[in-house]
User: Fold this.
Amino acid sequence: MDVQGREVVDKSSAEILTIPLDASGLERRKTNRAELVVRVNYQTVDELFSEFARNINEGGIFVETETPHGVGTSVDLQFKLPGNDEPVRITGTVMHVSPGSPGDPPGMGIEFSRLDAISRDRINGMVRKLRAASPR
Assistant:
């Protein structure tokens, strides 16, 4: 399956990179992502960036970018969830990089590594709402 939860038929190396796998080759993502487009401001040790997120789940977010950071890069993220003026501030780690494909933009999957209980509750609540509202 790709980052949007669709089954990957063509197993080219570019598409394989879009799937977060563990050492045994199994997908690591525990929950499916919910579609969400929000502006994400993030920074690494030396740079600031502003991009758009494409989707989110309880454990991470996919950020669209033509210049993704390498796997293992630590990033500080800040974004506003719909209906909430207070930004969520999280530290995450780049877990996979996608070169993109027709219909899917390039970007990076970031796993949340540090977030407070309030931010976790806000994200989990938004993901539940998005899943409930999306057609099955």
Observations:
- Residues 1-29 have pLDDT under 50 and may be disordered.
- Residues 13-133 form a domain with the Thrombin, subunit H fold (CATH 2.40.10.220).
- The longest strand covers residues 88-98.
